[in-house]
Ferredoxin (Pseudomonas retamae), 85 residues
Amino acid sequence: MKFLISFIRIDTTIPDDLWANRSALSCVCHEYVTTDTSDFKDCSNLRDIEAAFEANKNYAEDGDSLLCPQAIIKVIRIEPVPDTA
């Protein structure tokens, strides 16, 4: 099954007191994923897809280090994409 993921990037280098003006947040970004790929094949619900997407975008394979320490990805919406066949 195919899904449209909507997510934001959060700049972790911005001090917390400046978050109110939204300068730490990116615009909403979008990416399609499918449960046919190895990253998402074991996902059985939307929560699993969210966790897998964030893990793949935020952490190295060892799970103990960030891919980009200056920013983190946060999913804000997951929408199933209907088959067009």
